[in-house]
Design brief:
Chain lengths: 225, 113
């Protein structure tokens, strides 16, 4: 059996594709030729005829290399995942956290709720005005993800990104706190309260805003924007 | 018919064929070509040279998304799946082709040929 990768690589060597992109194209085209060759053998062709038949898949390698280069090199540098998930998620996170910072700078005081446990007392801090703005950020994140052709999961993640990030941060930091200060019911309750105040509540608020944008577009008649 | 028009028709029909297949399930290049050939009784045929530039173009437009994964035989293949953008593209393309054939039919009676 011919070395299909080598053959494809030689034929599209002239294209000015970036190395990684070229290697991906080589692997994909070689895999296609390999399957075409095997299918020809299954149809009863001899090895030589199967190779000849397979090579008919491309009549002009030079033209193919040029068309592939055109199609791939004008590729948007951002892939779909970046465009429809990471960027909206980052933008949403930045906007929500900036809003919180601005409110704090403006002197907004959190509403404190004192919690008594067997190990002592601690305060849960609620920034109510901030919480009330979060549905807007959730909606904006999910909307941007939907506009950039994100699927439901991407829209959800982009909409909830500030809440998810805060939960992630607490999950990262809390074990270290427990490790340093020691495990106790008091500290576990405090961590749970922190997750509720800074993760769960904001996520619920964000979700309220994101909900309208989570539905997959079902109207196939609407045109591409 | 000029080469340009013929190429546009071929391209449009190819896009519609690929989107219609991928709306059912993700497939990789060879499977796409094979299924299109089988399901059109050989009337539509994709070679490697005609398929991949079109797939890459569709990927660039955000209609399909390619991802490497192992096929049933354990070989790595680049599977293409329809994106929400591709899904939205399908209906207008179908409508375009329907009107095209209706127009051609009223002119040349092709559906009764």
């Amino acid at each position: 059996m011919p070395d299909w990768k080598k053959l494809v690589r030689e034929h599209i060597a002239s294209s000015a594709l970036p190395a990684a992109s070229r290697e991906e194209v080589v692997s994909e085209l070689a895999a296609h030729l390999e399957e075409a060759y095997e299918a020809s053998l299954l149809q009863g062709l001899t090895e030589k005829s199967a190779v000849e038949f397979t090579l008919q898949e491309v009549d002009d390698w030079h033209a193919l290399a040029a068309r592939i280069q055109r199609a791939r090199s004008e590729e948007n540098p951002m892939n779909n995942r970046t465009r429809s998930l990471w960027l909206p998620a980052m933008a949403n996170l930045l906007a929500a956290m900036s809003a919180l910072m601005v409110m704090q700078k403006m002197g907004e005081q959190p509403r404190l709720v004192w919690v008594n446990t067997a190990g002592g007392q601690f305060a849960m801090a609620f920034y109510l005005p901030w919480l009330m703005t979060l549905p807007l950020f959730g909606a904006a994140g999910a909307y941007i993800a939907r506009r950039t052709q994100g699927d439901t999961l991407a829209c959800l993640a982009a909409g909830l990104s500030p809440g998810l990030t805060l939960i992630g941060l607490i999950a990262l930091i809390a074990p270290w706190g427990l490790f340093i200060d020691g495990l106790s019911v008091y500290r576990l309750v405090m961590i749970a309260a922190g997750i509720f105040t800074w993760g769960v509540l904001p996520s619920i608020a964000l979700l309220l805003g994101a909900l309208p944008f989570l539905r997959e577009p079902s109207n196939l008649a609407c045109s591409e924007t | 018919m000029t080469q340009r028009i013929r190429s546009k028709i071929a391209r449009g029909s190819g896009e519609l064929a690929i989107l219609s297949l991928l709306v059912e399930q993700p497939l990789y290049g060879f499977e796409i070509a094979k299924q299109i050939g089988e399901r059109t009784g050989g009337a539509l045929k994709f070679t490697l040279a005609s398929l991949y530039p079109l797939l890459y173009d569709m990927e660039k437009h955000g209609w399909v998304e390619g991802r490497w994964q192992a096929n049933s035989a354990g070989r790595d293949r680049r599977y293409y799946r329809l994106t929400p953008g591709g899904r939205r593209q399908l209906a207008p393309l179908r409508a375009e082709w329907r009107s095209f054939f209706q127009a051609l039919d009223s002119l040349a009676g092709v559906s009764h040929a």
